[in-house]
Specification:
Layout: E1 2-6, H1 11-22, E2 27-31, H2 38-41, E3 51-53, E4 59-60, H3 63-73, H4 83-113, H5 120-127, H6 130-134, H7 136-150, H8 155-176, H9 190-203, H10 211-214, H11 219-229, H12 232-242
Parallel strand pairs: 1-2
Antiparallel strand pairs: 1-3, 3-4
Helix pairs in contact: 1-3, 1-9, 4-8, 4-9, 5-7, 9-12
Length: 250
């Protein structure tokens, strides 16, 4: 059985999870809170999530690697077969991974960390299972400095990330201004799936398999939600989530 190691609320992990569901590929999700995720990744030859160990034993430690492996098994499911269209999708996916993904992560964590009270514990508890759920207050206290230091979360960097995010979305909003249903072609591709997944922490789609059951835990995120849902790119992400494939987790 395919095993997907995740930090459950990670938007890059959602990208891999959604791709597995979209291609109807069965898997077992091993949800681990930070920094406990290292217990799932290091023994499997990696450090970051998502990490997929396929049923054949192949280790894929990156969301794009996972999507391309899935498309190899189901040609055309995530990347168009036409070479020009595929190149366009791959370029969009790479740009989203490099700009939108890191920017959203920093903006969201800065908003959470600057909020009053303990906002990590409810998020950790709502997205974890078993003993991790019980221990989520302790794990959250350990994780906060780990995340802040590892991802370089502070107000100045978050402001710069916000500017980069808005610039990237301006370009995507212009692309979507003609009313097209998908970023490239006439069907969902890796580009659409990546955009929706990476924007999910800001637009908070109720259909999200993890964030949808947690909801907002900080007023700052509520403000982001309203702003980014109003953008064409945010509306596109929400529309895609309304038709998100059901889970193939076993």
């Amino acid at each position: 059985m395919n095993v997907l190691v995740t930090i459950p609320f990670s938007h890059f992990c959602e990208k891999a999870r959604w791709a597995l569901d979209h291609t109807r590929t069965p898997y077992v999700e091993k949800r681990l809170l930070p920094p406990l995720h290292l217990l799932g990744t290091v023994p499997r030859g990696g450090r970051s999530t998502p990490l997929l160990v396929t049923d054949e034993g192949t280790r894929l430690p990156d969301s794009t690697d996972i999507l391309r492996w899935l498309d190899d098994r189901s040609p055309g499911a995530l990347y168009p077969r036409d070479p020009n269209a595929r190149g366009e999708v791959e370029a969009l996916e790479d740009e989203l991974d490099q700009t939108v993904g890191p920017a959203v992560r920093r903006v969201v964590y800065q908003a959470l960390f600057s909020s009053e009270g303990d906002v990590l514990t409810p998020m950790f508890r709502g997205s974890s299972r078993g003993i991790q759920r019980v221990a989520s207050p302790v794990i959250a206290r350990v994780a906060k400095p780990f995340i802040r230091r590892g991802l370089k979360i502070d107000a100045a960097r978050a402001a710069r990330s916000r500017a980069k995010l808005d610039a990237a979305l301006d370009t995507l909003d212009a692309r979507l201004a003609d009313g097209r249903a998908y970023l490239v072609g006439d069907a969902i591709t890796a580009a659409d799936l990546t955009l929706a997944s990476l924007l999910a922490p800001l637009v908070q789609p109720p259909e999200h398999p993890v964030l949808g059951s947690i909801g907002s835990r900080a007023p700052a995120l509520d403000a982001f939600r309203d702003e980014y849902r109003a953008r064409p790119s945010g509306r596109h992400a929400l529309a895609l989530y309304r038709n998100r494939a059901p889970s193939m987790e076993r």
